[in-house]
Amino acid sequence: MGKITARVSRYEGIADWYDGVMNDPGKRGGLKNRSHDLLEELLGKGEGLALDIGCGTGIVAERVRNLGYSPVGVDLSADQLKIASGRLPVAQADVTNLPIASNSIPVVYTTFTTTEYDDLQGVINEIYRVLKPGGRYVEIGTHPCFNGGYAEIQADGSVIQHPGYRSSHYLQPSHFNSPIRGRVGAWNRPLEDILNTILNAGFRLDRVAEGGEKDLPDILGIVAVKDKGEN
Length: 231
Ligand SMILES: C[S@@+](CC[C@H](N)C(=O)[O-])C[C@H]1O[C@@H](n2cnc3c(N)ncnc32)[C@H](O)[C@@H]1O
Description:
The chain has helices at 15-23, 29-43, 61-66, 78-84, 120-130, 181-184, 191-201, and strands at 48-53, 69-75, 90-92, 105-111, 131-142, 151-153, 159-161, 169-171, 186-188, 204-211, 219-225. By secondary structure, it is α/β, with parallel strands linked by helices. It has a single domain, classed as Rossmann fold (3-Layer(aba) Sandwich), CATH 3.40.50. The strands form three sheets. A seven-stranded mixed sheet has the order 3-2-1-4-5-11-10, with helices on both faces. The chain has a two-stranded antiparallel ribbon with strand order 6-7. Helix 3 (61-66) links the parallel strand 1 (48-53) and strand 2. It is globular, with a radius of gyration of 17 Å. Bound molecules: S-adenosylmethionine. Residues 9, 11, 22, 54-56, 59, 75-77, 80, 94-96, 111-113, 116-117 line the site of S-adenosylmethionine.
């Protein structure tokens, strides 16, 4: 099943460090737990294959399995997949070109990847292609407005917004003062681009949820459906 591409993930070679930061309550552990709570809520209980795209170290696999699904992960980074393979079955692939038959997967989900893909529309089109008609795509990511590339979150939960929000572009690590983005950089993507890539691919938006424990949400969850009769 595995398909190795010439592209290299920005996460190659830092998997142990990344997994540690995501699991550290003093770093990204809180954000990870809240995002996994939201994923659980949006997925709901179910069964059958659930494809985790950009699965990284497979950090959410156990919670998805506990809902009743059989998670399978795909990521570009061999290094991330080395850890993930202890948590779920995995394949190395570029998610713009999945080695998976069309109309074959009932559920696709992802966490923290919309700021990572260089070709977001290519990824969403590919997810749409592999989903069965009636299948669901659940996307959890950092909130593009209140936790995006130009949002500076303060200790009290307020957010200083800097100019730059309105276009999609990759920001170098030096732009950020945070553990993960400060090492790998991230894409700034306005909310309209995130929602329009999903609509452009042919999906119907089923639910949008803004998560976070403070007044301003730091997580965005989206459920999109490939309606029956669409291919
Ligand atoms: C921020 S990490 C998120 C990992 C995991 N989903 C999590 O929640 O911890 C982004 C992941 O997307 C992967 N990625 C980025 N572009 C990709 C692509 N085109 N195809 C497959 N994986 C990709 C990276 O290798 C990395 O593991």
